[in-house]
Amino acid sequence: MKQLLIQLFFLLCCGAVSATGVYNVRDFGAKGDGQTLDSPAINAAIEAAVRDGGGQVLLPAGTYLCGSIHLKSNIDLHLSAGCTILAAPAKMNAYDASEPFDFPEYQDGGHTYFHNSLIWAEGEKNVSITGHGMIDGKGLTHKDTENSGNIQGGSIGTGDKAIALKLCRQVTIRDITIYRGGHFGIIMTGCDLSTIDNVTIDTNRDGFDIDCCKYMTITNCRINTPRDDALVLKSSYALKKPVLCEHIAISNCNITGYKCGTLLDGTYIPEPVNWVCGRFKLGTESNGGYRNISLTNCTFMYSSGLAFEEVDQGRMENIVVSNITMSHVHHYPIYITTGCRNRGPKEVTTPSTARDIQISNVIADDCDSLCSIIVTGMPGVPVKNVWLSNIRLYFKGGGTKDLADKNYREQGTNYPEPKFAGWTPAYGLYARHVDGLYVNDVTFRYERPDYRPAVLLDDVKNDVIRHLDAPTEEGIDQVIRK
Q1: Of 30, 209, 378, 414, whose CB neighbour count within 10 A is largest?
Q2: What does the alpha-carbon distance between residue 469 and residue 15 come to, in Å, rounded to a whole number?
Q3: What is the pLDDT of residue 11?
Q4: DSSP 3-state assignment of 76?
Q5: Residues 111 and 155 sit within 8 Å (Cβ to Cβ)
Q6: DSSP state of 23
Q7: 186 vs 465: CA distance, rounded Å
């Protein structure tokens, strides 16, 4: 009789589930005690919802130790307040094996393989991850398979991403928090019609990587990435062909470079400057390129600034940035470059190009004097049509006079990171191989004397500089043209 009652109770629960469209993972055996591996129960709940046409898979308050979770079409994975999905340690072998990739790997394994992730989906539609719960990637590795920028090939062999979505449509990620997200907190490749809103990431590598995606909005997010990039758009060969990353609108986000965890606990301890602390970036994987990208109303604190890098034979065009504030800027405030790293098929010979980039209403203080604003193209292939307007930059200063005569390296095949090129020959703006540079209402200041010119233009055609307010030391020209 007891056994019969239990079976009747289970059937009644299943009936209630299908009637409401909510699938509580505890009804499928999840414990939420932080000790039991709960991903099989969560996957069972997802499969039950799929059989019924979709619904919400609910994780109530608790700590759910998990390996790979398989997100499917028409599923809302809902993390209730007080819920934590805790990434299992590698020794538990709880992550799916990496999928085959029968194609040359022109990008790092983290961009190539998706199934060895904490939460992943491929080719699904109408999927969402919502709620005020947390994903804690404690058991994920933050390592990759590159060595000094050189691709080694293959998968890292264990869980390395908190959320990995490939070739999905109509994706929503809203309200969640990601702590220690592994190599990538969120990576989306080839995803269309997506929304990311009110997400907090406090992690030890990249925050968001948006690769070969289109028609996406990213709003109201807080991204703390003290040891790598915060919000990155990429255009790699992960889809085995060059695909543009385009029609992306980003607004009202905060980018910071505090020590991992101190954004969440409220202590806000700045991370010492190293490889990179935060930043908004296009690149470096850039085989397809970037088109119709908007960034507005964002703040940066203890991080690098804006980096637009087209170095893999794609195109970068129609980029608009406005209403940006930065404090304590590492390495550079604004960096625009093309190059010929050309990480891709050798038979592709088209050079990288960049044009029609507009940046306005930017204020930045305590900027590292290593780099001015940098705008550089390639010999014979200039960056075209760059507008810089209503910009106020306050640098630390301290540049010496000999730096103005420095032979600043061409980007060429080098990895596009200004710190490797050293000090720029100008303290405020350095431009080379540019056709169409329009500077209006720009102010530069420095705290200590700087003996470089404010502006140095080298192989720049069709430049217009109006209302430039920039001090220079005695005997130093404000603007130098070569």
Answers
A1: 209
A2: 71
A3: 40
A4: strand
A5: no
A6: E
A7: 41
User: How many Å separate Cα 4 from the centre of its chain?
Assistant: 54
* Predicted confidence (pLDDT) per residue in 19-58, tens digit: 579 999 999 999 999 999 999 999 999 999 999 999 999 9
Q: Round to whole Å and give the CA distance between 6 and 9.
A: 5
Tell me the CB-side half-sphere exposure of residue 296, using CA atoms within 13 A: 10
Residue 177: both structure tokens together: 């928090």
Question: What is the b/e burial string over 282-291, where b = at least 16 CB atoms within 10 angstroms of the residue's CB?
Answer: bbbbbbbbbb
> According to the model, what pLDDT value does residue 12 have?
44
Element holding 135 (H helix, E strand): strand 134-136
Taking the C-alpha atoms of residue 328 and residue 63, their distance in angstroms, rounded to an integer, is: 37
Amino acid at 455: V
- Are 337 and 416 in contact by the 8 Å Cβ rule? The answer is yes
H or E segment to which residue 122 belongs: strand 119-122
The three-class DSSP label of residue 40 is helix
Structure tokens at 447: 């705290």
Phi-psi region for residue 403, left (φ > 0), alpha (ψ -120 to 50) or beta? Answer: alpha
Within 8 A by CB and 6+ apart from 482, the residues are: 456, 457, 458, 459
Q: Which two tokens stand for residue 152?
A: 């080694």
Give the closest residue to 220 by CA, choosing from 240, 248, 199: 199
> Tokens in use for 231?
């919000």
Closest to 234 in 3D by CA, of 186, 193, 279, 284: 284
Rg (CA), the chain: 24
- Candidates 380, 396, 287; CA nearest to 331 is 396
* Residue the block writes with tokens 């960096």: 335
Give which of 236, 242, 244 is closest to 215, Cα–Cα: 244
Give me the pLDDT at residue 309, please.
98
Given phi > 0 = left and psi -120 to 50 = alpha, else beta, which region is 52? alpha
**pLDDT for residue 146:** 78
Phi, then psi, of 94 in degrees rounded to 5: -95, 0
Which residues of the chain, if any, have pLDDT below 50? Answer: 1-16
Q: What does 1-59 look like in DSSP terms, one character per residue?
A: -HHHHHHHHHHHHHHHHHHHTEEEGGGGT---EEEEE-HHHHHHHHHHHHHTT-EEEEE
In sequence order, what are the residues at sequence separation of 6 or more whose Cβ sits closer than 8 angstroms to the Cβ of residue 266? none
Q: What is the tens place of the pLDDT at every residue in 326-341?
A: 999 999 999 999 999 9
Structure tokens at 457: 């233009």
Gap between the Cα atoms of 413 and 341, Å rounded: 4
